[in-house]
Specification:
Shape: globular
Number of helices: 30
Radius of gyration: 28 Å
Structural class: alpha+beta
Strand order of the largest sheet: 6-8-9-1-7
Length: about 900
């Protein structure tokens, strides 16, 4: 019998002799006489570190006291043959067991294992675990012992695999927690060790012990995709990615191709398999989370049923619009925009009140436009798209049997053009101070008369609302005035069109094709409509958090599907590794803030306090969303969309009057993105933690450049031109001295000048004001990633890999993470609407502002990318 031991520690551990298995006294509170159980010792940690680490890694805990010390322990046991499971741990420990059993399922020789008993027992345990609403479909056998325990002592550093004989199967996750009074405290360090061993045959273990290869190249970077004939100082993005860019072909149904989109493709494939399997289990009225998701998926795939129903599913909505014989009545219909297919003139959402951070507030923002941005109506460069939009409006109205579709389409586009004239720009909307205007309902009515505010709020289920926060304050009165003067027939046609547009992806194929022709072909440059199953996955699971389209963002089972996705596809050990990396990035940021030469001590103190308050969330929410009351029917697609939207709005509006839930997530686990939120939280969903962003088998320098860069990017958002207006308590407050604020703005302006010169497509340059926050965060990301990588070396030199230094590999990891190209139409849309710069600039521009990049790649004066030291933006 053999043991595979993997250690995932932070710096400061001592190592045993090569080949030696660590032996120590058994941990207190556990029976050491059970055969095959071994213990590992760890250095104690500080209260703060232990609490923070434990909060990130465990769901529940029990107290154990021993020798004047207090420990928090989670335990999950699987014993041989009978396999009784006792769950006192949270979701992570359970997923560890589930992943273990799945691995055993893959064995060719399962003789001697009771597979059915293993699956049934694990399913029974799932039923009793509050983290799951239903059993997981797990096959396999857990053959001996799984235990998370606490101990003190020593272990070895690095990720190492060691073969040890004469020990039975075990998996041990050791989480230190020590705050014993009077005990000498050793240098704080957080440790997490997984010991894997098996009753497998020797041949099986030998195969398992072989090092896994990275997804890209031999050490995590795809050298075959680099263009080494291009000098890094001429075009660093092409140097890192050029041959891949030359070979890659954008799929007909995509706006672009990239390694990040490859992550999305893999996630989409997994979701497809999951939903197909879930749909196959549907029989009668779905009652479990899995069968509800499967029935929703099946309702989208049932094209025959959709064609049969025609526009009947939205007939009641259209009738209500026709019956709204006054502007007040029509304004009240907009209250259903969160739960149906109506569109509002003023959008509303619930979020943390930035000046009362313990409570929620309802925010109002400008809305009413069908094209991506006001510029599409007002700039000659988008005349073709605007003309196509008017034809699309007419086609949708005609298919809805709306009278005079061509004439009404002209009226609708004229109305929206006038709305666009008074709307704020995307850059103006980034001003957190200007967009926070708290007022009572009476004050709102005085600000923007001519609109039925109370009617809209009542229809949204919030009749007692007394306070709102208005974003674009100067636009509201002009928009309300325009609404009050526009003919009712135009407003009715406008609302009818938007109902048809929002519902089009769920209606018969003629609507789907028309919707794709505008949104896919005209606005994004796609050449082929995604196949039906891909659209079904989006409808049920949701789309990218920042996709910008209503389809895939309203009326989904996103968080429910996320529970199913992470249970099957997210390894708990990835969560642990990312959390350790985050601690290193935070330490690097602290060090940089402490030595900034342009910041006063007063501002520095506040900045450090804010940095310490950030909470990192990895993988999935701690508290699953409850879908038990949600009704899903396999033959009612639009009804499913409505009921999911109603459930979501009930969730958010239902907690409006209560305390702020600081464990909340704004992204689903299957989202290929990350964000820095209003809760001073930085969230990394499970789906983004895949190569090239994070590969557990890649060289650490590559992971620091990619995943570390993303972590640093999100940390920096808390201190960019928007984030710096929020203090350590999450409140909107100016905590900067005037001199420091001026210094920050001057440094940010220098970076903005650099981006303002960039022209990715003819006649369209990067909007430096719109992209300022993301550009600052990208610069912070690569800078912090490099610092954190240096710290991870513990004073040792970085190894050379294929002749590349550690610093070179960090920069290459960053550039590879942005490898990709996008269609011209999609780039133009991005430049007008998206606060992110095009990916070639995200990968290539930040490094040229970092001194270490010049030394790493020997970039010299005269090289096209060379910036004199005094012109390099140095912010954080």
């Amino acid at each position: 019998m053999f043991c595979i031991a993997l250690a995932l520690p932070l710096p400061g551990l001592c190592a045993p002799a090569p080949g030696d298995c660590v032996r120590s006294a058994p941990a207190p509170a556990f029976n050491a006489k059970q055969p095959g159980i071994r213990s590992y010792r760890f250095s104690p940690v500080s209260d703060h570190e232990a609490r923070e680490y434990l909060a990130l890694t465990t769901g529940e805990s029990v107290d154990i006291r021993h020798g004047g010390c207090e420990y928090l322990v989670t335990t999950l046991r699987i014993k041989s043959k009978s396999i009784p499971i006792r769950l006192t741990a949270g979701r992570d420990a359970f997923l560890t067991a589930a992943n273990l059993l799945r691995r055993l399922r893959q064995l060719k020789d399962t003789s001697g294992f009771d597979l059915a008993l293993a699956a049934n027992t694990l399913s029974a345990a799932a039923k009793g675990n509050p983290a799951f609403e239903e059993p997981l479909a797990v096959e396999g056998d857990g053959t001996d012992f799984l235990q998370a325990q606490v101990a003190s002592g020593r272990c070895w550093p690095g990720i190492r695999r060691r073969l040890c004989t004469n020990y039975a199967f075990q998996r041990t996750a050791v989480i230190p927690f020590n705050h014993c009074k009077g005990c000498p405290m050793i240098r704080p360090a957080l440790r997490l060790v997984f010991c894997l061993a098996s009753l497998f045959p020797l041949s099986t273990l030998a195969a398992d012990a072989a090092p896994a290869k990275p997804v890209y190249g031999n050490w995590g970077f795809d050298l075959d995709g680099a263009d080494l004939s291009t000098s890094p100082g001429k075009d660093f993005f092409r140097y890192a990615n050029g041959r891949w860019l030359d070979r890659a072909q954008i799929p007909a149904d995509k706006p672009g191709i990239s390694l990040r989109l490859a992550i999305s493709d893999l996630t989409e494939k997994r979701l497809h398999e999951l939903l197909e399997q879930s749909a196959a289990q549907v029989s009668g009225q779905p009652a479990t989370l899995e069968t509800k998701a499967g029935a929703f998926y099946a309702s989208f795939m049932n094209a025959g049923r959709i064609e049969q129903l025609g526009i009947q599913p939205v007939a009641a909505d259209l009738a209500a619009v026709k019956q709204a014989t006054s502007r007040d009545a029509l304004a009240a219909r907009m209250g259903h925009s969160q739960t149906g297919f109506e569109t509002p003139l003023f959008n509303f959402l619930i979020d943390v009140d930035l000046k009362d951070v313990n409570h929620y507030a309802l925010y109002l923002t400008q809305a009413g436009l069908g094209l991506p941005d006001r510029d599409y109506y007002l700039q000659a460069a988008f005349a073709r798209q605007k003309a196509a939009y008017q034809r699309y409006v007419a086609e949708i109205l005609r298919r809805l049997n709306w009278p005079q579709p061509e004439a009404r389409a002209r009226d609708v586009v004229t109305f929206e053009t006038e709305l666009a004239r008074v709307s704020w720009t995307k850059a103006q909307q980034r001003d957190t101070v200007a967009t926070y205007n708290a007022m009572t309902i009476e004050q709102l009515q005085a600000l923007a008369p001519g609109f039925n505010w109370r009617g809209m709020f009542a229809a949204a289920g919030m009749p007692q609302l007394s306070k709102v926060i208005v974003a674009e304050k100067s636009a509201f009165p002009q928009m309300a005035r325009l609404y009050s003067r526009t003919p009712l027939a135009t407003l009715q046609a406008w609302q009818a069109f938007h109902i048809g547009d929002n519902a089009a992806p769920y209606l018969p194929q003629a609507f789907v094709d028309a919707h794709f022709q505008l949104h896919g072909v005209t606005l994004a440059g796609l050449q082929q409509q995604p196949v039906r199953w891909k659209r079904a996955v989006t409808a049920v699971s949701g789309d990218d958090f920042l996709a910008g389209d209503r389809f895939g963002s309203v009326g989904t089972m996103g968080f429910g599907v996320g529970q199913l996705y992470t249970a099957r596809y997210f390894p708990p050990e990835v969560k642990t590794q990312i959390e350790a990396m985050v601690l290193n990035l935070k330490a690097a940021y602290r060090a940089r803030i402490e030595r900034l030469d342009w910041m006063s001590e007063a501002t520095r103190k506040e900045a450090l306090r804010k940095l310490d308050t950030y909470v990192i969330k990895v993988g999935y929410p701690d508290h699953p969303r409850d879908y038990s009351a949600l009704v899903i029917a396999a033959d009612d697609l639009i009804g499913n969309v409505r009921r999911c939207a109603e459930a979501d709005w009930a969730f958010y509006s239902g907690r409006y009057a209560g305390p702020v839930d600081r464990s909340d997530w704004a992204m689903t686990p299957q989202t290929n993105d990350a964000y820095n939120g209003s809760l001073r939280d930085i969230v990394f969903p499970a789906a983004i933690l895949q190569a090239p962003i994070f590969d557990p088998n890649a060289d650490p320098a590559i992971n620091y450049g990619a995943a570390g860069g993303v972590i640093g990017h999100e940390l920096t958002h808390g201190f960019d031109d928007e984030g710096r207006t929020i203090d350590a308590d999450g409140a909107l407050r100016d905590w900067w001295t005037a001199q420091d604020a001026a210094a920050f703005k001057a440094r940010a302006h220098m970076l903005g000048l650099e981006y303002a010169k960039l022209e990715p497509v003819p006649g369209a340059k990067v909007n430096a004001e719109l992209t300022m926050g993301e550009n600052i965060a990208d610069l912070g990301g690569v800078t912090l990633a490099l610092d954190a990588y240096h710290a991870s070396l513990n004073g040792q030199p970085a190894p050379l890999l294929d002749g590349y230094t550690g610093d070179q590999r960090v920069f290459l990891g960053w550039a590879q993470a942005w490898r990709g190209k996008v269609r011209e139409e999609a780039v133009r849309k991005q430049l007008a609407t998206d606060p992110h710069s095009p990916r070639q600039y995200r990968g290539g521009i930040p490094p040229r502002n970092v001194d270490a990049w010049y030394e790493a790649f020997q970039v010299q004066p005269g090289d096209p990318m060379y910036l004199p030291p005094e012109q390099r933006a140095r912010i954080w």
